[in-house]
Amino acid sequence: RSPKTNAHVERFIQTVEKELWMIEGTEPTVDEMNRKLFRYLSFYNFVRPHQGLGYKTPVEKFEEYIKKLQGVHHVLNENTDTSQTAYLSS
Question: Is the pTM higher than 0.85?
Answer without folding.
Answer: no
